[in-house]
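[audit] Reproducing an earlier prediction to check determinism. Same input, same settings, fresh worker. If the tokens differ from the archived copy the diff job will pick it up downstream; this log only records the rerun itself.
[audit] input (156 residues):
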Amino acid sequence: MQNLGQKALDVREAEGLKVGIVIAQFNKDIADSMRLACIDQLVKLGVRSDDIIEVEVPGALEIPVVLDAMAKTGNFDALVALGSVIRGGTYHFEIVSNESARGIMTVQLESGTPIANGILTCDNMDQVEERMEQKSKECADVVVSMVSLLDQIYER
């Protein structure tokens, strides 16, 4: 029996990968920190900085349509969605959180392009600041792992 996936990341797996990052600019300071952490991790994993394309959108609800457009080009091996949604006093938090996640999943399933969902959905700014760097790095790890796993599956 052979077990696919769940192995240590190998820098060679990321060499030559083309990765797109869509970043919601609402909470701009958070978005900038997340972008930098994700790119830093991608480069550490072996993705060339020239092979990383960044696109900024106003907020989390705008991320799925841009991911969809990027996936349809066929120019990307994987995509990352980054941003933050902070709970307020209205139901809007649930709409943005749920619908952005649904949109990302729809694009991923319809396109077959791995997408890491790095949209933080937190109750307050302290929670965002506590999670933003780690989540962004994890998104880089996820897309490299998923490209490798899907390559193994399709080779069978």
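[audit] rerun output stored. Observation attached for the diff report: The chain has a mean pLDDT of 92.
[audit] end
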